[in-house]
Amino acid sequence: MKQATLEDAARLVRDGQTVTIGGTLSQRIPAAMVRELARAGVKGLHLIKPSPGFDADVLAAAGALASVRAGMTTLEQPFGMAPSFRRAAEAGEVKVIENACPAVMASLQAAAFGLPFQAVAGLDGSEVPEISEFARVKDPFTGDDVWVVPAVRPDWAILHVHEADLRGNARIYGTPVWDRLMSRAAKRVILTAEKIMPTEHFVAQPELTVVSELFVEAVVHAPMGAWPTAVYPDYDIDEAAMRRYLQLSRTPEGFRQYLDDTAAQDHARIEAAA
Amino acid sequence: MKQATLEDAARLVRDGQTVTIGGTLSQRIPAAMVRELARAGVKGLHLIKPSPGFDADVLAAAGALASVRAGMTTLEQPFGMAPSFRRAAEAGEVKVIENACPAVMASLQAAAFGLPFQAVAGLDGSEVPEISEFARVKDPFTGDDVWVVPAVRPDWAILHVHEADLRGNARIYGTPVWDRLMSRAAKRVILTAEKIMPTEHFVAQPELTVVSELFVEAVVHAPMGAWPTAVYPDYDIDEAAMRRYLQLSRTPEGFRQYLDDTAAQDHARIEAAA
Amino acid sequence: MSAAYAPADIMACAMARQIRNHEITFVGVNSPLPLAAVELARRHHAPLANFVSVGGGVNPKVERIIAATSSAELGRGSASIFDNQEVYGLNGRGGIDLTFLGMAQVDASGRVNSSYVGDRDQPKVRFPGGGGAPAILPKAKRAILWRAGHSKNIFVDKVEFVTSQGNLERIVTPLCVFRFENGALRLDSIHPNVTREELADKTGFTIPNLADAPVTPAPTDEELAILRAIDPDNVRRIEFGPQ
Amino acid sequence: MSAAYAPADIMACAMARQIRNHEITFVGVNSPLPLAAVELARRHHAPLANFVSVGGGVNPKVERIIAATSSAELGRGSASIFDNQEVYGLNGRGGIDLTFLGMAQVDASGRVNSSYVGDRDQPKVRFPGGGGAPAILPKAKRAILWRAGHSKNIFVDKVEFVTSQGNLERIVTPLCVFRFENGALRLDSIHPNVTREELADKTGFTIPNLADAPVTPAPTDEELAILRAIDPDNVRRIEFGPQ
Lengths: 274, 274, 243, 243
Prior knowledge:
The complex is a heterotetramer, with two copies of chain A (274 residues) and two copies of chain C (243 residues).
Chain A: E1 2-3, H1 6-11, E2 18-21, H2 31-40, E3 45-48, H3 54-61, E4 65-70, H4 83-90, E5 95-98, H5 101-112, E6 117-119, E7 135-138, E8 145-150, E9 156-164, E10 170-171, H6 179-185, E11 188-196, H7 199-204, E12 209-211, E13 216-221, H8 239-248, H9 252-273
Parallel strand pairs in A: 1-13, 2-3, 2-9, 3-4, 4-5, 9-11, 11-13
Antiparallel strand pairs in A: 6-8, 7-8, 9-10, 10-12
Chain C: H1 7-16, E1 24-27, H2 32-43, E2 50-53, H3 84-92, E3 98-101, E4 105-107, E5 112-113, E6 116-118, E7 123-126, H4 133-136, E8 142-146, E9 155-156, E10 168-172, E11 176-181, E12 184-190, H5 196-201, H6 221-230
Helix pairs in contact in C: 1-2, 2-6
């Protein structure tokens, strides 16, 4: 489809699929798309992401998550832990696949290179591998035991970027966090972008392109699409909006109100951009 | 040491060490540094590189190579195979660790991430793994057999780049081929650079930096440092110079003459730049 | 009726005709003929073919055919740069639809030797090595081999060493196109003006359907015009040596 | 004699004093205090310390301490950008000399629980998870943990679940600095104006050398001046909650 509305792109994601979501904690989360998934009522998603935050919290509040494979889930300072995720985890509604960031990375790297599994450095003395989807393999060259994790290939990588063209080439300024890896590990990519730029912009400095058109299924022009999370250097975390979300998301009714309240704005921004 | 002369940098490389060398075939080879290694008389080097070319040929002609772990070794069209490498291989003077480019890549990736080994995709039906340093491992998640290769951590990555600062930050324009990976896999990096730029140049667009100062031991300002191989878009292969090299390198005396003939030029260019 | 053409030209056409819109076609090192084929296809019947070059380009602009296809020139006009890790990642996860691969020798069962002949530690002939082929042949959906020569040293009954094998579809030579079917090479088509006797003489294995196979359609004027436009210096013929 | 200071200030100083020139120090997410410590060290005794931030920077310019240390702000002024794969590559191959890591609980044997308390599938308390710590603690040459609280729920005798353990060197708290030695936590120093009784009361395990340990040197005027300059809004105190 490539150029898409928020609604069209959200419809690509089906119940029970595995998704990975760009950004980290409260930074450059494709928040408009995550809210749209919640509005669309998608259920049973498996989220794989080393460091989820606002995304996991919204999807947990929406009851959209079956499992989370993560190293750490938090909204970070000054907000603390992701409360809806925490509530769902403590109620046993979301299966937490206890992990470590570089082990989740290894599952995505294995997928990106078409390998069945990958070893993980470190983990000595940790009980995380014992309670999760890890296995011991003997290094055939040294005889030493090493922990390995399986490849996990998400159906979708959902990424919010600074700039994209309508073919799906995209730039991220500053750290891409895990987005480069996610775009290779997933079967297909859904982009939301602050700005749509002509392809010549990418051709002028192709070394800056983080996501290639070859990987991308849909491109949504979504200015402020990470709000209330931050997009460096364009906008910082909207602390008041984040606190309002945290207040409303304490109850199902409040969360529904949050989705409704933000719907007009999410869609208006995208229409204004179109 | 960081800022260094060609001679100083060449002295870092000791007999019997493992090196990986940037560029590919006859493209962006750190040729001035490779010639200087030959002049310095270093012996017993183990070269690991998916696609060596001019570098392997010069080092083979110099009798500097103990082994080559490569997928393919050629000077590419219009020159054909690397003749001194071929001669040394056929005489049994250089041990050829028969391989495949992505398997050599996997050995470097494992080193770059501190893993003991890595799986390699594909290879079904190939006899390469049977005669080389590969092993069969059972995927603990599916029970399927998969070929793995050991990590190989080079002592040095020797790379020729477009631009570097004196701290060791470096840019490559166009494909970095394997250089990004090599700079992470090796213990330390030796850079030769077409241009020395101020650090602010890299700070202005840090996303373009391929090699970080953290990895780099020595930086040599070497304009035309890849000659007679190409540096896109600055200069193409010098076909006449390549043919002269191929002519001279047929005999030990001719090769010695080649090293002598090019010494003044290699050093003069670097002095002129300093 | 076509204008005069060289073996390299009908080879480029035969290869180009396998390139399809929307698919991802990969061209590696040492590949001026496949490069010519891709650019011919893009200007002829497959303008929407995706082309990934080992020179770093994703759908780069190709104005002239070059001999050293590992050149970063083949990133020019691209909106992103794929280094070699990217290429092998794409290959490993099954993202390459069609690949062109060179080779030193191939046998009747479609097995390729690009490694060596003779003793392993002191080989009689050291070939360049398989490059990425051992991993690409089994992973690409379709693979087309080519070789600018056709002799009994190249097309052998049984290779001494198997560097690679896999999803081989066709082999394009100066004399014919082979098709790989049910584990064996068959004749897909014989080029115009090549006799079946000559082909049999220069092939080191028995061709099962030698008599029945059709003749390769000659390059059309349109195809030849495009080849001349993108390659006025006949770089695509370089693998045939000095003409 | 020093000016008045908050617990966060002496913690930042205690952490900063462990940072050395030429070493590579890593600061991850949720780490305003370690960020303050690094910038204090760079402006005080370790101008040549290398600082890798999970925000992407290698020796970034830090003008103000920020709460969300995963922000790409911490790539500003850097000559290169490290994404998280780079960070874990560097860690995996042993390239991190010193790391600061947060945690939920730690026990007398220096084992950390940042995962959960109670039943695994329906935990009484779900913590954020260990992040990268399970792989960083064993690989970094030295690890310093910190926590902006000090109670028997945090410093426990034995954790129910071991998220991570490894090359732990010190733990910095509002009351003291612990040192990890021969498999056990000992008191490295107790902060000024903290009584040994209070420390024992708020610690869930017996401190072997409670009576003998020295007092943490108070922040110097110079250190406090730097902290105020880089953090006029006291963001480093944010983990202590509203003051």
